[in-house]
């Protein structure tokens, strides 16, 4: 190898360093993805050696069965609360980006829920939402809202998804705030000083300086919000098991139940492929819209 030229040696060294990451990527990403697509065209039960080929039947079943594809309507609550979550996160980021006393403490306080264990958070809010002894209803009763204090937050079909999505707002808002905060700190202070000299008020500064500089970060957080809303699993799985009467089932909980409860891994694989395609389409559409908006 020492007889090789510097350019050739450089190529071999780069290849050697990339070899292990590429092997890991192929082993744990590309190969499982190919097998997932293959299984989606079979009626495999998950444990037998036989994998009968069924063609596009699984995909037709997903789109034609309202009990499968129709659960996407339950994800709308998570998307709506996710948008609100970004607005609140941006609000706190703008405030805590200023020179306030104790701002580091408040940053830590708002970010703390994100590092908490998801299962622990789910059980904590299970007690919080409890109809008879939950702290939320006790607080509402103390404030005099007697009708609201008897609400079944996780037992009603109308409120259950919004109640679960509110947990996500509490847990992930601090994460979004930190992302916005990092972007805000990258904006030169001279720009704000110039706007102040020109007589711009707070709203004008935010609308014409802060917001345009956060455009790419907003795009990123919006994508994370949409993909997260489509891929919700842990909260409904732990707290409601999809109830009441399937009102809180999401596409992922339905996929897991199809694979491990009904032993239909072929149909579950097709559901996973469809979810991946939907996320890719949404990402492509979002990039197209934001690129046009940026131009």
TrEMBL record:
Its membrane topology, per UniProt?
Answer: Multi-pass membrane protein
The residue ranges crossing the membrane are 12-34, 76-96, 108-129, 162-184, 205-230, 267-290
- Record keywords: Transmembrane helix included? yes
Q: Where is the ABC transmembrane type-1 domain?
A: 75-286
In terms of Pfam families, this protein maps to: BPD_transp_1
Q: Which PROSITE patterns match?
A: ABC_TM1
InterPro entries linked to this entry: ABC_transporter_permease, MetI-like, MetI-like_sf
Instruction: Indicate the family of this protein.
Output: Belongs to the binding-protein-dependent transport system permease family.
Q: What is this protein called?
A: Sugar ABC transporter permease
Read off the lineage from the record: Bacteria, Bacillati, Bacillota, Bacilli, Bacillales
